[in-house]
Amino acid sequence: MINSDSEFTLIVHKFILKASRFRQLIAIMEMWVASLWIRLQGCSEMKKLDFDKTLLEAVDGALLTFGESPKKAIYYHLDKSFKLQRKDIPEDIDKFSHALNTFFGPGSEVIGKLIVKNLYSKLNLNLEEKARFEIVDYISIAREIAKREQQRMKVAKRKRRNPLERK
């Protein structure tokens, strides 16, 4: 039982203080969850925009149309004949294109189109076929678009961290 107004006031103040601390704790937890969400989102965005990995997946998918063994044989001959390992294809797409032309002749255009279609699909890009474009041209365009998108996302991420940042 409360005996006086001062005891009642003291109890109310204690309650308000505890409620205030509880609200602060909730706010801290909300900020922590939000920062964790942004970090997780950033990781998935980086995975989405890892262009070299996506390009290799597109190449794998196109070569897999021949089957697993022929795909491995093509990679083997790329390494032995052109000193081009699978992991180096994104860095030397010209050499890769030349190797495809050497292996498949005019059929390399079909394989190149498969690679480009896979790549553009994985990057959610619209493929507009051009008359004199080759695989190298399409990949260069996709790489540039992915690079710009990655830069845009970095700026957006920085602004999420510091909403007061100006342009």
In short:
By secondary structure, the chain is mainly α. The protein has six helices and no strands.
Can you tell me about this structure?
By secondary structure, the chain is mainly alpha-helical. The chain folds into 2 domains: 5-48; 51-159, Orthogonal Bundle (Non-ribosomal Peptide Synthetase Peptidyl Carrier Protein, Chain A), CATH 1.10.1200.200. It has helices spanning 5-48, 51-63, 68-82, 93-104, 108-122, 135-161. It starts with a helix and ends in a 6-residue tail after the last helix.
Supply database-style keywords:
167 residues, mainly alpha, Non-ribosomal Peptide Synthetase Peptidyl Carrier Protein, Chain A, 2 domains, 6 helices, 75% helix, rod-shaped
The overall average pLDDT, rounded, is 81
Helix and strand content put the structural class at: mainly alpha
As for the number of domains, it is 2
CATH superfamily of the largest domain: Protein of unknown function DUF3227
H/E element order: HHHHHH
CATH topology of the largest domain: Non-ribosomal Peptide Synthetase Peptidyl Carrier Protein, Chain A
**Share of helix among residues?**
over 70%
Unreliable runs: 42-49
CATH class of the largest domain: Mainly Alpha
* Rg over CA atoms: 28 Å
Looking at the overall shape, the CATH architecture of the largest domain is Orthogonal Bundle
Main sheet characteristics: none
- Proportion of strand residues: under 5%
Quick one: how many beta strands?
A: 0
The first-to-last residue Cα distance is 60 Å
Helix tally equals 6
